[in-house]
Amino acid sequence: MKSSDFYNQVNDVWINKNEDRMDYFNNRNAAKDFIRMSATLVDLDELNQLIRERQNQLSDDLKDFS
Predict the structure, then answer these.
(1) How far is CA 19 from CA 22, 25, 63, in A?
(2) Which of 21, 26, 34, 65 is the most exposed place for a label (fewest CB within 10 A)?
(3) How far is Cα 16 from Cα 13, in angstroms, rounded to an integer?
(4) pLDDT tens for each residue of 18-58
């Protein structure tokens, strides 16, 4: 077996075991690409509002654990 085949196989195993993590990475990168390349000022204003709401939600969740 060539070393590249081995690394491809190991990579496939990691991806199968970590599908949720891969989804997270893919979604994060898609969001960053959208912001960098396509977002208008209106989009950025809406995203800022959504980010503030998410930050508040996460902050409230942390308070529930304290």
Answers:
(1) 5, 10, 29
(2) 65
(3) 5
(4) 999 999 999 999 999 999 999 999 999 999 999 999 999 99
What is the token pair recorded at 24?
């997270």
Q: What are the φ and ψ backbone dihedral angles of 51, each rounded to 5 degrees?
A: -65, -45
Distance, CA of 39 to CA of 51 (rounded, Å): 15
Which whole-number Å values give the CA distances from 31 to 9, 14, 28, 50, 57, in the listed order?
29, 23, 5, 13, 19
State the DSSP code for 1.
-
Gap between the Cα atoms of 53 and 50, Å rounded = 5
C-alpha gyration radius of the chain: 18
Q: Residue written as tokens 């590249």?
A: 4
